[in-house]
Carbon-monoxide dehydrogenase medium subunit
Amino acid sequence: MEESKSVMFPKSLHEAWKLYHDGKESSCYISGGTWLRTQWEANPEGTAKQLICVDCLPGLQTISTSSDDGETMVTIGAAATLSQCLESPVIGESFSGFITACRNIAAPAIRNQATVGGNILTAAGDTIPSLLVIDAQLHWFNGTDIESQPLSDWLRERENDGANEEERILVSVTIPVKKQEKKGTAFSFYTKVGRREAFIPSVVTVAGTGMLTIEGTLADVALAAGGGTTVPGRLPDVEALLHRARFSPELLKKVHEKIMTDYSPPPDPFAGVYYKKTVAANVIIGELYRLQEQQSDDKGGVGYAVRS
């Protein structure tokens, strides 16, 4: 006979924390539940006996803006759905890569339930690369107060200590809105590659942001890659190669080689390490090439191609 389960609806973060820690061995925080449901379908015996619903907690479903020392910040509640993000004017205006990532996850019915916090807490969600390149910060309730942590730092912790369950409650994600600079043209991209067009886990996801200066050099380039079971991460050495660089066949070749060296995804039953490395490198080179072509068209020049 199947053991009964209970769903708890705490009214505060403190109450949710206490419920979890009072029954830690058999409790689980839940919001949209779309990812957890797939885990439970694969392993019914692994289903927690007590589900602590946090999506009804005050503030966890809101999307808002604030100003701090002249810098505009967008705050996304951890229980805000992907559909909410897609409908948010401020997110649409400021974070096109993140919007593309949300739009390319599953179907509308899933996006109406799936939350930003849930996607992050998988440590492999498809929105994560797009959040890494815009310097997202996570805000956690630790049982006493709220603490902040860069998304990149938390991912490194999960990669090194992934077997331990995260016991804190993810409250929100904040993202700085970069001011429009007159020194060049900002760019942003996000690409998801899967085994078919839709309704399938990704094989590789890649995101990037930066600026093409009026002098024709690249600046403030941020790149991240993930996909599948890979814990996403930035590509700092590749970013350094591109900083203040001008487009050339030699540059694109070096970037491709560096991605092949630095990006280290795990294999899975459908795609090997070399395949994933090659896809990530080719996608990033393709985006850079399109950017270079646009620059060349603006100046009436000639574009470059790179062979790999």
Summary: The chain is about 35% helix and 25% strand.
